[in-house]
């Protein structure tokens, strides 16, 4: 019986400790809760909380340990909904979108186009983008050697958007570029094109 309890605690900790913790880290790194259900995580947090309280009333560590951890991490995700929704609501970053690089051009309806020009066969749109649609913008890119870089005027932070992958770098600190440049080169983008100008 003791063995079953130990295995149960370990498996529960893997789900709550690793699963929810990785979601919290992912939300933090991308500063977004795009694609997540606030209702689901609220119900999850409440459920874990009541199971934790029940565990304490029963003095049952099999319930107390994983359910308390699950409650804490679930409430952290709920808190992130308020933080990241508020932080990205009004912030707009600027950049250039090459229309030819998009597999789903409907994304252009969700950005503010401030100018358009032709460069050979390419259609280039100067845009202002709400940060909360960056994950959707990433999904809208076509596969291949494409990227979009976005920045806020007067700030050092630059967001590099590839197909299904987003990086955050500091323009003034080239050591933060390493992973981004390596990824860009891995999908066929010449290094000289991975200079991310923000003028």
TL;DR?
This protein is an alpha+beta fold and 199 residues long.
Low-confidence stretches: none
Number of discrete domains? 2
Number of strands: 6
Query: What would you call the structural class?
Result: alpha+beta
3D architecture notes:
With 199 residues, the protein is of the alpha+beta class. It folds into two domains: 2-89, Monooxygenase (Up-down Bundle), CATH 1.20.1280; 92-193, no CATH class. The chain has five helices and six strands; from the N terminus they run H-H-H-E-E-E-H-E-E-E-H. The chain has helices spanning 2-30, 38-58, 61-89, 134-140, 178-186; strands at 92-98, 112-119, 122-130, 148-151, 157-162, 165-170. It has a six-stranded antiparallel beta sheet, sandwiched between helices. Strand 2 (112-119) and strand 3 form a beta hairpin. Helix 2 packs antiparallel against helix 3. It starts with a helix and ends in a 13-residue tail after the last helix. The model has no long low-confidence stretch (mean pLDDT 88).
